[in-house]
Specification:
The protein contains 8 helices and 4 strands; from the N terminus they run H-H-H-E-E-E-H-H-E-H-H-H. It is mainly alpha-helical.
């Protein structure tokens, strides 16, 4: 018996709550594609647009998916931790190493350009979401620690791709860029150590924030995770093809592939 058209299931229509994060993610991806194709002042404007879209996506998704208190909490918490770590880093060299920002980044707070905490916002929320997915197989008693560890690692790994690009653009410079990761001679290993430390602190606080403020998720995590994947793997492609940064391209592709492999193994083991 052939079912009638009326009996066939209709595709579920997405609500505005679901479409807004996806629209922001699409705008972010389109703007990121424009970055390697631009130069000069246009490229600087594209950088600002990427960071503003990414930060907006994180706050809006946290708000729409887990409630207004979580969205506002993410904005205040991540922005505050970013300014604290970056201002201490500028003044003391701890925990990243000694570095200086260029004037091209515009207005600052405690010496930290406004672009920087916005970049933290862009990176932190998707990293926490992915950390949660990677920690799912861990037994409940250890899941929080695993989630924080994974999220901090993803947060630091994202910067492995981002930092050489920003140095190449002239946004900041390192006083002592060596030793660095193989293939990356403009960013010291101390920066990676600093990002891991900052990531552990930030993801611990973010985890506590979500625990105390969040309602059950009302929107899936596809939009911020798509943004994270594209900014890492797409960034690696841009580094290799257009920006002349083969070392960070290899690291970005390798780290992204490793995370995808872990997720694939987890999916295959699901009953």
């Amino acid at each position: 018996m052939i079912p009638s058209i009326a009996a066939l299931p209709l595709p579920r229509l997405r609500t505005a709550r679901e479409l807004v994060p996806l629209a922001l993610a699409a705008a972010l991806l389109a703007t990121a594609i424009a970055y390697p194709l631009a130069d000069g002042d246009t490229r600087n404007a594209v950088s600002w647009a990427i960071v503003l879209l990414g930060a907006t996506l994180s706050v809006v998704h946290a708000w729409l998916s887990r409630g207004a208190r979580t969205g506002l909490g993410v904005l205040v918490l991540v922005g505050g931790v970013a300014v604290a770590f970056e201002s201490v880093g500028l003044a003391t060299g701890f925990p990243y190493g000694s570095y200086t920002y260029s004037d091209v980044l515009g207005p600052t707070l405690l010496g930290v350009p406004f672009l920087v905490p916005l970049a933290w916002l862009m990176m932190a929320w998707p990293s926490w979401l992915l950390g949660g997915r990677l920690a799912r197989p861990v037994r409940p008693g250890r899941r929080r620690a695993a989630r924080i560890a994974w999220a901090a690692a993803v947060f630091a790994a994202w910067d492995v791709v981002l930092d050489p690009q920003m140095v190449d653009a002239g946004y900041w410079t390192w006083a002592h860029p060596s030793p660095g990761l193989p293939g990356i001679d403009t960013v010291p290993l101390t920066n990676l150590a600093g990002w891991l430390l900052a990531g552990v602190v930030l993801m611990t606080l973010l985890d506590l924030l979500v625990e105390r403020t969040a309602t059950p998720p009302a929107v899936g995590d596809a939009a911020p995770l798509l943004a994270l994947a594209w900014m890492t793997l797409g960034g690696a492609l841009a580094h290799a093809g257009w920006l002349g940064l083969p070392g960070s391209a290899v690291w970005g592709a390798g780290l992204g592939a490793a995370v995808l492999a872990v997720l694939a193994v987890q999916h295959a083991r699901q009953p």
